[in-house]
Amino acid sequence: MPEGIAEGIGASVRRKEDRKFITGRGRYTDDINRAGQLHAFFVRSDVAHAKIKSVDIKKAAAMDGVAAVYTGQDIADDGVGGLICGWVVPNRDGSATHEPPHPILAKDKVRYVGDHVAMVVADSLATAQAAAELVNVTYETLPAVVDLASAATAAEIHDGMANNTYFDWELGDEAATADAFSKAKHVVSATLRNNRLIPNAVEPRAAVAEYDHIADSYVLHSTTQNPHLLRLVICAFVLNIPESKMQIVAPDVGGGFGSKIYLYAEEACCTWAAKKLRRPIKWTADRTQAFLSDAHGRDHINKVQMALDDNNKIIGLRVDTLANLGGYLSAFAVVTPTYLHGTLLSGCYAIPAIYTNVKGMATTTAPVDAYRGAGRPEATFLLERMMNIAAAEIGMDPAEFRRINFIPKDAFPYQTAVALQYDIGDYEAPLDRALEMIDYKGFESRRAEAAKRGKYRGIGLSSYIEACGIAPSAVVGALGGRVGLYESAVVRVDPTGTVSVFTGAHSHGQGHDTTFAQIVADKLGIPLANVEIVHGDTNRIPFGMGTYGSRSLAVGGTAISKAVDKVIEKGKIIAAHMLEAADSDMEFKDGKFAVAGTDKEKSFGEIALSAYVPHNFPHDRLEPGLEETAFYDPLNFTYPSGTHIAEVEIDPATGVVTLVDWACCDDFGNLINPMIVEGQVHGGIAQGVGQALLENAHYDENGQLLTASYMDYCMPRADNFPSLQVDYTVTACTHNDLGVKGCGEAGAIASPPALINAVVDALSPLGVTDMTMPASPEKVWRAIQNAQTKAAE
Amino acid sequence: MPTVSMKVNGQSVSHDVADNTLLVTFLRETLGLTGTHIGCDTSQCGACVIHVNGASVKSCTMLAAQANGADVTTIEGIANGDELHPMQQAFHENHGLQCGFCTPGMIMSAIELVETNKNLSEQDIREGLEGNICRCTGYHNIVKSVQDAAQKMGG
Fold this sequence. Notes:
The structure holds two protein chains of two kinds. Chain A is about 30% helix and about 25% strand. By secondary structure, chain A is an alpha+beta fold. Chain A has a seven-stranded mixed sheet, with helices on both faces. A five-stranded mixed sheet of chain A has the order 7-15-14-13-8. In chain A, strands 18-26-27-28 form a four-stranded mixed sheet, with helices on both faces. Chain B is α+β, with helices and mostly antiparallel strands. Chain B folds into two domains: about 5-75, Ubiquitin-like (UB roll), CATH 3.10.20; about 85-150, Orthogonal Bundle (DNA polymerase, domain 1). Chain B is built from five helices and five strands. Chain B has helices spanning about 25-30, 85-95, 105-115, 120-130, 140-150, and strands at about 5-10, 10-15, 50, 55-60, 70-75. In chain B, strands 2-1-5-3-4 form a five-stranded mixed sheet, with helices on one face. In chain B, strand 3 (about 50) and strand 4 form a beta hairpin. The N and C termini of chain B lie far apart (about 45 Å). The chains are: A alpha+beta, B alpha+beta.
């Protein structure tokens, strides 16, 4: 066994990136300061919907220390473009998604509280902030549009966009679905709300923009998950800068969860102004700005109908969704509730007919976009709630009802009724394991014991599937995406045999420095310490599509694997030359290139050195150097799946829901670093539990965000959780080299319905059949009171 | 501008700062100790926790001037050269961090929690870290890290 194999694929190696973070030597965007830098502060709309009558900047601009105050007019006069939508879908009538302009500073109208109206640049943040107070904006206020259900008939938000509807999209066979319902023995109906969330990476967004007027080039440090896409959008669509003149650096980034995928107005404004003023410009959001202007998540209303046959098999599903997308279309606002939602409606189940209609609605609230799971948690929530509602209505155990409707493990590849083809899966295995882990059989005795203590105890399941490893470019293109979703990797072997890997994926907590290095170390048979992972800099990496959609390992990791394969192939040719053997006789194993069937061999280090000291290379067929590039475009999505089970206790006196146990078993395919995978699962569960129990973004009827600080938006804390039980089953992905599927979003996808199913189960003895998210103490307490009042009547 | 003097990570520092300078700003901007982070503006997130005279303090809730004469320790000051503090080591061993942004504050809170309490139960640790928000880890491995460190620190 070669040195380093204990650090290879499958080992829970401790993370290479930890040391800088635990010693305070991480380098986040706000840690960066430049000589002569100015500070930006944005004047934001304090009304939800208004025409801008005037913006008076005179007093602010005259303040000592203020370098400039810019308005939407300045941006427009300079021909600066707006923020763009990266994916559109066709409407049911064949027309296109309505894409209203999204200027980086509003000029004529504001469309949510927090919309950017002016930018103040000053020699200190305090001065910029004080000057911003002196910018006098006069508005002609218009009615706020907050309620999603009635948004279609409310005040027009974008000129000429009828019914405040960005798009009206459908998927599936409507006639076949209607036919299934006509034959159904039992039809289950429910209206299910998916509450609005605010992502809340603990590091607020920030930017440091620099312009070099000699080279006419820019450097933008940004808290982005996606440096190359940021560069493409800011250069090609907003500021009209050659991409070769723009370097985007995403240094250490303190969490993303989707909210840092997109180009935002602030970083575009800073970059634009850095050239105007020829000074570096820094901007860092405070938490309130983050609440107001980071892309929010979820916010759907679903009307769902499920048709069952005589054998309790699901034969049809119809879902009508209203998706609240806010005042402007964010970059991936359209794909999230459509192709990342409608395609997931089959879940783990063999459902022959499915039809869904999604209307993307404008409201005068912050833009809504992808948030951990992006469409898939919303789909899973409605489906897994329906599974429990249906099971309750037909009087069947919810685990058993799921089991009889699962796609059987011998039915793969399985073509769903909503476009996807699942390559592989086995849904019963994780269900069985999770039931065992939580002692499902023993639950009723625990319920009875809790009842003796005056508590309501409940258990709730969720069997989910997700489509990740986003995504085959051909599929993306056919479905309206304006990007390809491959990933790139360069594997550079140094003369001394150390290896640098340049990846287009971006790590902001996922542990790529370790996981990716394990793949390389394992494949090359070298120590982990000899592999460095480089990411987050457009000047160092060929190209990249960034990190989201649980794609880093399945797509980015596979690209690395393929580049390593190319290195090995070239190494074989070098070794064959050195050993005077035929290329075809060479094999590579355990870090050594050997002539098959002989003891003639060269170590990886010898080949690396020889590649750079090519004294007698046959130059007609062998170039010096040992560096290879691979772009990997996946062949399909990957389909992680599993079952999560929540057990809760409710105190009827307070309505407080206590999560007392959690068991989950996931199938992520092969695991590279189980420790890191488990951490991803924990974090996902916590975000899902946050959604189900604690978190809610709330706008009042005037469009004011009432939950704009941690005082009002309830974040999950350590004491909201029990110890979490996590286990795995494995069916290896069939279409990537590593057999991996992705694990970053699973917890957030699976957990909300498990939690709500548990809460409803706990209250079911009282006759409670539904609970909206979050299941806050007040709501739960009221549900108990109402049920008890009814019972007394 | 008043002169503020204190000991930070064992070294005496003295600077003129504006009256309204927060301690966290003084550490980050004046001293360049950027391991202490700012994650909110309402003293909830705990990313800025440091030790002032041995007690954990959210450095966004204190003016630099209030720390005049104090003995301040930040995340940069708890390792002994290359030898990590047991709490740092435990976070590494137990995968108690992901993006790392909340980590310095979490470690500083955890150290004080363990140093001032014996025989901490899992629930004690969870409640003791209530003032620190982490969005990545689900707290599971943070709690494990603190349990591990508590053993090594003789808690």
